[in-house]
Design goal:
The chain contains 14 helices and 20 strands. By secondary structure, the chain is α+β, with helices and mostly antiparallel strands. It folds into three domains: 119 residues, PH-domain like; 130 residues, Phosphorylase Kinase, domain 1 (2-Layer Sandwich); 176 residues, Transferase(Phosphotransferase) domain 1 (Transferase(Phosphotransferase), domain 1, Orthogonal Bundle). Strands 1, 2, 6, 7, 8 and 20 form a six-stranded antiparallel sheet that branches. The protein is globular. It is an enzyme of class 2 (transferase). GO terms for molecular function: ATP binding; protein serine/threonine kinase activity.
């Protein structure tokens, strides 16, 4: 079999086979997969293109290997079912990828190619001081001025009419705005740069930039249940994110009105949230902050996952972040963690939807910690299928947690979701349990009057509050559709190397 050499941006293989080995689990059969090496991510697809000789990147994406910080070594035959010319990729997570090459030269070339891309700096990383990280990279830095779809104008605050305040947060506020030339209504998140540096914590800056970059990454493969980024721009004093406006409120607001959901209603929302999380994981993103407040409801009643300030572009992470009552035990214990933390949070949200309170609610952080680490939640009356799903999502061992294998496929086939038409759900053909009656696309009745009663203005900020070195971190922040989503610049080209085979 002939194997082509990987180019700078793509690594392709005919008859590629990939095996995923999980501690405590039985090795699975070798399966054919097609690969694309995309910067710090190694993506693998199920099928080839129509010609049978190239990868179909529009087809089913089976998974993503985050290469940053991974180890890649040769693999003894005894580790690969006796197969020769194998190597393994070991990310910081517990998964091990065994890859078989047709010959030694091919294997060695692949090892070198992966090592080169594993050394790329990722956007919004958690390590290092803010003065030493390159948050944007040359590709995005060149994008400080971008053309809008169908035109050549630059997006500025002047392109929008400020309508109402719809929320406030730690660093700024969210306003409902209208684009002057098209009349389209959006939500505009405004952050003061000086507030981002106020605590002298580099993670505040990293989370802010990570949100921009994760949103831009999501736009490369849009999803019906994720709120994507329309534009991002900045002034000397502030950062501006422009997103689609969701006027249906959020899941927390809906729960506060209903107290709790029927299981069929909870199944609908849990299903849409699951599909959104699964998509993020395929892009190599750990969400880390799932809670009802971050699940917005669009005007049609379907969910939109939002607020990506804590999202991590990696298959693993080590930082303590998120909302305490929804955090997985491995985060509390400050262990390296992976996508499984999002499935734990889904279990917490599902429990709350059918019982009205999170499973590990406590009056203090210490109480929450003790409950998450040591106790089992008391289940109110519910069907065995629902309780089983929650119990398996709240498994303390991440390797045994429901959803830990095959990017959540165990959740999809769990008996609690039996009868749910996943394709219909994804295409929004399933009727939502609730749908707000809106007077217009600008209706804000589902937002708190404490916010909507405030005057929507762009407040004056001290322009001298930032140093030149602080301001430099925001070079390349601007984004419009078509901008490069990468925050770490163009990937370093790996040396020529034939592709390989692997197993799943």
């Amino acid at each position: 079999m002939t194997f082509p050499r990987p180019s700078r941006n793509s690594l392709r293989a005919d008859g590629v086979r990939l095996r995923v080995v999980w501690p405590g689990h039985v090795w699975r059969s070798w399966k054919e997969r097609w690969f694309v090496l995309d910067g710090h991510l190694l993506k693998y697809y199920k099928g080839s293109g129509a010609d049978g000789t190239s990868v179909d990147t529009t087809g089913e994406l089976k998974g993503v290997i985050a290469l940053q910080g991974c180890q890649v070594t040769t693999c003894e035959p005894k580790e690969a079912d006796g197969k020769q010319c194998c190597f393994k990729i070991t990310p910081a997570s517990r998964k091990v990828y065994i890859i078989k090459a047709p010959d030694v030269d091919t294997r060695d070339s692949w090892i070198e190619a992966v090592r080169v891309n594993a050394g790329l700096q990722m956007t919004g990383g958690e390590g290092g001081a803010s003065s030493s990280i390159d948050l944007m990279g040359e590709a995005d830095r060149a994008q400080t001025k971008n053309a809008v779809e169908g035109g050549d104008e630059n997006v500025t605050l002047g392109d929008f009419e400020l309508l109402k305040v719809i929320g406030r947060g730690t660093y700024g506020k969210v306003m409902q705005v209208r684009r002057r030339d098209t009349g389209e209504v959006y939500a505009m998140k405004v952050l003061k740069k000086e507030n981002i540096f106020a605590r002298n914590d580099p993670k505040d800056l990293q989370h802010t930039i990570a949100e921009r970059n994760v949103l831009a990454l999501i736009n490369t493969q849009e999803h019906p249940f994720i709120l994507g980024l329309k534009y991002a721009f900045h002034t000397p004093a502030k950062l501006y994110y422009v997103l689609n406006f969701c006027n249906g409120g959020d899941l927390y607001y809906l729960l506060s009105r209903c107290k709790k959901f029927k299981e069929a209603q909870a199944r609908f929302y849990a299903g849409e949230i699951f599909l959104a999380l699964q998509h993020l994981h395929k892009l190599g993103v750990i969400y880390r902050d799932l809670k009802p407040e971050n699940v917005l409801l669009y005007g049609d009643g379907h969910v939109k996952l939002t607020d990506f300030g804590l999202s991590k572009e990696s298959s693993t992470a080590e930082t303590f972040c998120g909302t305490p009552v929804y955090l997985a035990p491995e985060i509390w214990l400050r262990k390296t963690y992976g996508f499984e933390v999002d499935w734990w949070s889904l279990g917490c949200v599902l429990f709350e939807m059918v019982s009205s309170l999170p499973p590990f609610w406590g009056d203090t952080i210490k109480d929450v910690y003790k409950k998450v680490i040591h106790t089992t939640p008391a289940f109110p009356p519910m069907t065995p299928e629902c309780q089983s799903c929650i119990e398996r999502l709240l498994e303390r061992d991440p390797a045994r947690r429901l959803g830990s294998e095959s990017n959540g496929e165990g959740i999809r086939v769990h008996e609690f979701f039996a009868g749910l038409e996943w394709d219909a759900l994804l295409s929004k053909q399933t009727r939502p349990p609730f749908k707000s009656k809106m007077a217009s696309s600008e209706d804000t009745q589902n937002f708190h009057k404490a916010f909507t009663g405030q005057k929507a203005i762009d407040s004056v900020t001290d322009l001298s509050a930032l140093t030149d070195s602080q301001e430099k971190h925001f070079e390349g922040f601007t984004y419009v559709p078509g901008s490069a989503p990468q925050g770490a610049g163009e990937p370093t080209p790996p040396p020529p190397a034939p592709s390989a085979t692997s197993s799943e």
